[in-house]
Amino acid sequence: TSMEVVLHYRPHQRDLTKLQKFAEAAVKEFPIRQLPRFVPWFPNDLYRLPLKPKKQAPVISQEEAEELKHFSTPSEYGTGSPGYDCTKNLREFQSSMKRGPTLTQAQAVHRTINLDYEGQPPPNGKQKLKRSWSVSLPSAKLKENILPLSQELQNNLERLKLHAFYRGRWTIEQSICNNQNLEDIWVKLNRLIKQNELPSCNATIQRSVGQIWIFCDILYCEYVRNILREKLSLTDKMNLLVHKYGVIFSL
């Protein structure tokens, strides 16, 4: 095969020898470099990983797997009698479940009440009171109605070097319930939380000590306290407690 090459050059570049070499170099086949074989810079052996978990993954029995299927059926959430306790059928809030032989002791230590005795006294005659949780969802609409913190609370935060997003805890006891039952207060409180009227809040009823704990960011604590007083008809003052700092404010 032949190839015709047209070479353009400037008048002062009339050296034919150089022009010929330049043209030959221009049509020379482009060299292709052979890439070396890829070698990873990390161990490529899945059985010899440099990092290994300290403990083996948890193992559940076949019976436990069947119970999980039972609790994950859609009918569990769509039917049944109405109630205010949204944690009734959530496994992580149950006190005890039947365990298969492969469960570890650490997994079973937190399960103190068998579900078989729900709704009736246990065989030993001792009734253990459970606690329940309720958690709010974030809502941007409420922030427009929240006023700045009072000067007293701001001074306390500055003195203790606490940030406004520290979590605080209000405590409701029977003595401030204004002749209402603690369970009735819990029902009303759950309704407020589900309707997103209490920003950043989650609450738990500690039936064993006769108290309801409401956790919230200090930034919203005064707003939350005013809503609790108005909606739940609470009397007397409540103390705001912060972990490791104790009571930092009363309202």
From TrEMBL:
Note the CDD domains from the entry. RBD_SHLD3_N
In the UniProt record, what gene is named as encoding this protein? Shld3
List all membrane-crossing ranges: none
InterPro entries, per database record: Shieldin_RINN1
Superkingdom of source:
Eukaryota
GO biological process annotation, one example: positive regulation of double-strand break repair via nonhomologous end joining
Task: State the protein's name.
Answer: SHLD3 protein
